Amino acid sequence: MSQTLVEAIDPNTSNVLAAKYVSNYENGVYVSFNVTGHMQFRMTRIYGENLSQAGPVYLSGVFLDGEGTVTETMPSPNIYQQPKLLTDSEIDYSVPVSGGAAPKPPIYDLIGTRVAINMKAVSRNNGILAYSWQKSSDGINWTNIAGASKVTYIFDSLTSQDIDYQYRCIVTDNRAGWGAGTAISGNFDLSGHNISIFNGISDKVSAKAGDQVSISADSVSGKQFVKWTADDDSVVFADASQSDTTFTMPDHDVVITANFTNMPAGNYKINVTFGKPSAYSAAPGDIVTITANAPPAGKQFAYWTSYDVSFANRTSATTTFVMPNKNVRIGASFSDPM
Questions:
Q1: Residue ranges per domain, the chain?
Q2: 74 by DSSP, 3-state: which?
Q3: CB 293, CB 274: distance < 8 Å
Q4: CB 154 within 8 A of CB 119
Q5: Residue 302: which residues within 8 A CB-CB, separation 6 or more?
Q6: How buried is residue 198: exposed, middle or buried, by Cβ count under 10 Å (0-12/13-18/19+)?
Q7: Helix (H, G, I), strand (E, B), or coil: what is residue 187?
Q8: φ, ψ of residue 157 in degrees (nearest 5)
Q9: Taking a C-beta distance cutoff of 8 angstroms, is the pair 187, 167 a contact?
Q10: Residue 317: partners with Cβ closer than 8 Å, 6 or more residues away
Q11: Whose CA is closest to 220, among 257, 255, 261?
Q12: d(CA 317, CA 319)
């Protein structure tokens, strides 16, 4: 005879919420639990008198009923290269001209030529990526471009009307059994000035004079954010000391840098997926606030998950936790509206 203890465990508290013994399952057996939320299962093989020790234990599937189930969403695709303009001669218009470099022709000199907007992305969870390019005359109202479903959008012959638009790409990550994950590239304005950003990301890769540009600093291992700097004094930040801030685009290309310093001794790192912490490192005992990102289209915030901390309110999109004596990893989960 074979016997195994099957337990349903809350991953945040490690408490056992339900448990059942199963026996004689050589041909398979169904075990049901009346539990909800994020769950782990632990199977412990029992040995002893009259109990067989042969053969492993396999969990072949988990089945959820329709009421109260949560569809896990694929992580947002990683857009590791924002849109940039390439010509047939492979001139990259996303990189500002530095001293001594050959001047690049004005965008209007490219009218009538073949050019392309190219970006690059990768799935974070072995999914299949789909691309949809959009355009907008104001950066607010967007329309899909018919047939523009590849990683590169090509203008066979650039027109003056094409230059009047901004362009972006919607990247969707699909995998069977998962909710689709979505990421939106930065806006590329053919007639705007280029934005190059180091150690961070921006909501645009080019902009016209007077446009508002939002920027966010990266999370760097062993470092904490200090301030933003620019290669030109005409760039004024709303708050250079905040990792998330804005600036007004001047009438020329800009290079923006997020600056970091070493993490203070005794602090531990905070990593939040699909959300932002109030600090990227903290000392044990500190109260840290976390805020979830805006949900993907058609989704709503569901709950926070972590093996490292307990939350003041696990189902609130903004909540707090007490920093433990170790690095922590936290994730925000989203679900279909109830």
A1: 1-69, 78-261, 268-335
A2: coil
A3: yes
A4: no
A5: 70, 315, 333, 334, 335
A6: exposed
A7: strand
A8: -150, 100
A9: yes
A10: 291, 292, 301, 332
A11: 261
A12: 6
Query: How many residues are given for the chain?
Result: 338
In sequence order, the 6+-apart residues with CB closer than 8 A to the CB of 135 are 142, 143, 145, 165, 166, 167
- HSE on the CB side for 315, CA within 13 Å? 4
Q: What backbone phi and psi angles, to 5 degrees, belong to 38?
A: -70, 130
Q: Whose CA is closest to 155, among 205, 186, 147? A: 147
pLDDT of residue 117: 92
Q: Is 163 helix (H, G, I), strand (E, B) or coil?
A: helix
Q: In terms of Cα–Cα distance, which of 239, 284, 287, 280 is closest to 261?
A: 280
Which parts of the chain have pLDDT scores under 70? Answer: 1-2, 24-27, 45-72, 88-106
CA distances from 74 to 63, 175, 179 (A): 19, 8, 6
| Phi, psi torsion values for 244, nearest 5 degrees | -115, 120
pTM of the complete model: 0.47
Residue 211, CB-side half-sphere exposure with 13 Å CA sphere:
27
Is residue 288 within 8 Å of 318, Cβ to Cβ? no
Q: Report pLDDT digits (tens) over 18-66.
A: 777 777 666 677 777 777 777 788 877 665 555 455 556 666 566 555 5
Could you tell me the two tokens for 85? Answer: 């303009």
Q: Which two tokens stand for residue 19?
A: 């448990």
- For the record, the structure tokens of 321 come out as 């936790």
User: HSE (CB half, 13 Å, CA atoms) of 45?
Assistant: 13
Please report, for residues 74, 172, 181, 182, 257, the alpha-carbon distance to residue 78 in angstroms, rounded to integers and kept in the order given. 11, 10, 10, 10, 20
Q: What is the C-alpha separation between 117 and 72, in angstroms, rounded?
A: 32
Residues 6+ apart with CB under 8 A from 102: none
pLDDT given for residue 253 in this prediction: 81
